[in-house]
Amino acid sequence: MAINRIPVRVVVYSKDIENITGLMPRTARKMLESIRKAFGKPKGALISIKDFCAYTGLEEELVKDFLRL
Fold it and tell me: What is the number of other CB atoms lying within 10 angstroms of the CB of residue 55?
């Protein structure tokens, strides 16, 4: 019987964006704000891996592997 692995998290933080893209901290925070605006989310709303990938064009599996999920 296969055990379904539950992901550790589904949210992307600015530090993750820094590590994935190589952006500086302030630029990574600006990118989070841009993603929120693009998806019509309120200020401070959490950004999912799916939202991040849709915005950047990166594959979800690639990002999940990078985040070790």
Answer: 17
The total of structural domains in the chain comes to 1
Read off the pTM.
Answer: 0.83
Q: What is the structure's pLDDT at 16?
A: 95
What is the Cα–Cα distance from 30 to 24, expressed in whole angstroms? 10
Say if CB 43 and CB 28 are below 8 A apart. no
Q: Would 5 be classed as within a structural domain?
A: no
E strand residue ranges, the chain: 11-12, 47-48
Asked whether residue 19 carries a pLDDT value surpassing 60, the answer given is yes
Whether 4 maps to a domain, the answer reads no
pLDDT in tens, 46-68: 999 999 999 999 999 999 988 88
